């Protein structure tokens, strides 16, 4: 999980309605629908669960501490999805106790290494890395009209990149991966469901469907990409250059928090099979 800074999250809440409209134009789905698709539940199931499950967002002060605006933005995203959510006045363990005592069924909390949604009724733990991976794959699937049998290149074989590859295989996409560190892709060399690309430049030009799960910013040029490229970009900072963002407007999805949080909540309320 990339540690965000205040600049990444400030202003998100007041733009959620407009972001929903942009997502629907690009993917055919709203933020809530993308989250439900990622979790494998219907929107009705999510809304029924939202009525029954209150969410507490808990500030966590360990490590580098609370990111300014982070807790308020997470609460805002939850409320935008139709979930009753509140920020606890206490932090850390005291915040968890407060959340439960105030009737919360789902606890949202993040430290330097994990960001989770804990459902205290079912014991489900929805991890942000998994949720972000599934959410952005779902968004790309919406843009592409489905990913089955489509070739999809994943940049980055870190935690999120690996979760993306797992989900792509479940969707029966033809997955490929590139990482600047070849040791990170070595264990995929014997996987018949994943192609390991050795040269980023030639791979970028060949794949129409691309997911950037790297922490590298400002390195993707429109001129280097497939002419019909569609992209999901969960990496923070944004990999596309500013000029390329203008050229490819409408053909990529990127946000620092919204899709991941929404998918976490959908996964947290999903009934265990």
Explain this structure.
- This protein has 273 residues and is an alpha/beta fold.
- It folds into 2 domains: 6-129 and 258-269, Rossmann fold; 145-253, 3-Layer(aba) Sandwich (Rossmann fold).
- Helices cover 40% and strands 15% of the residues.
- The protein contains 11 helices and 11 strands.
- The chain has helices at 6-9, 16-27, 31-39, 43-52, 70-80, 92-101, 128-144, 159-170, 200-206, 242-247, 258-269, and strands at residues 55-58, 85-87, 106-110, 115-119, 125-127, 151-155, 174-178, 194-196, 209-212, 230-232, 252-253.
- A 6-stranded parallel sheet has the order 8-7-6-9-10-11, sandwiched between helices. Strands 2-1-3-4-5 form a 5-stranded mixed sheet, sandwiched between helices.
- α10 links the parallel β10 (230-232) and β11.
- α7 crosses α11 (258-269).
- The longest helix has 17 residues, at 128-144.
- It is globular.
Radius of gyration: 18 Å
Trace the largest sheet across and list its strands: 8-7-6-9-10-11
Overall mean pLDDT stands at 96
Q: Please give the domain count.
A: 2
Number of beta strands? 11
Which blocks of ≥5 consecutive residues have pLDDT under 50?
A: none
The secondary-structure element order is HHHHEHEHEEEHEHEEHEEHEH
Query: What is the makeup of the main sheet?
Result: 6 strands, parallel
User: What is the number of helical segments per DSSP (H or I, 4+ residues)?
Assistant: 11
Query: Alpha-carbon distance between the termini?
Result: 27 Å
**Per DSSP, what share of the residues sits in E-state strands of 2 or more residues?**
15-25%
Shape descriptor: globular
**Proper CATH architecture of the largest domain:** 3-Layer(aba) Sandwich
CATH class of the largest domain: Alpha Beta
Q: Which structural class do the helices and strands define?
A: alpha/beta
Percent helix, as a range, is: 40-55%
CATH topology of the largest domain: Rossmann fold
């Amino acid at each position: 999980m990339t540690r965000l800074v205040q600049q990444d999250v400030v202003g998100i809440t007041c733009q959620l309605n407009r972001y929903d409209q942009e997502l629907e134009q690009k993917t055919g789905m709203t933020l809530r629908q993308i989250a439900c698709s990622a979790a494998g539940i219907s929107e009705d199931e999510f809304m029924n669960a939202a009525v029954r499950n209150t969410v507490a967002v808990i500030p966590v002060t360990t490590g580098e501490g609370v990111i300014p605006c982070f807790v308020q933005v997470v609460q805002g995203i939850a409320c935008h999805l139709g979930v009753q959510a509140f920020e606890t006045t206490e932090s850390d363990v005291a915040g968890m106790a407060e959340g439960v005592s105030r009737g919360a069924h789902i606890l949202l909390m993040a430290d330097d290494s994990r960001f989770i949604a804990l459902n205290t009724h079912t014991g489900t733990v929805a991890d942000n890395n998994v949720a972000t991976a599934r959410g952005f794959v779902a968004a790309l699937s919406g843009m592409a009209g489905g990913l089955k049998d489509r070739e999809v290149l994943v940049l980055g074989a870190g935690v999120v990149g690996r979760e993306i590859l797992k989900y792509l295989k479940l969707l029966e996409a033809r997955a490929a991966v590139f990482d600047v560190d070849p040791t990170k892709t070595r264990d995929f060399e014997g996987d018949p469901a994943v192609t390991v690309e050795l040269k980023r430049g030639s791979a970028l030009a060949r794949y129409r469907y691309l997911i950037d799960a790297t922490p590298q910013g400002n390195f993707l040029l429109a001129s280097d990409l497939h002419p019909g490229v569609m992209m999901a970009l969960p990496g923070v900072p944004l990999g596309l250059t500013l000029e390329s963002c203008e050229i490819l407007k409408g053909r990529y999805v990127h946000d620092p928090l919204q899709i991941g949080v929404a998918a976490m909540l959908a996964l947290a309320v999903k009934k265990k099979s």
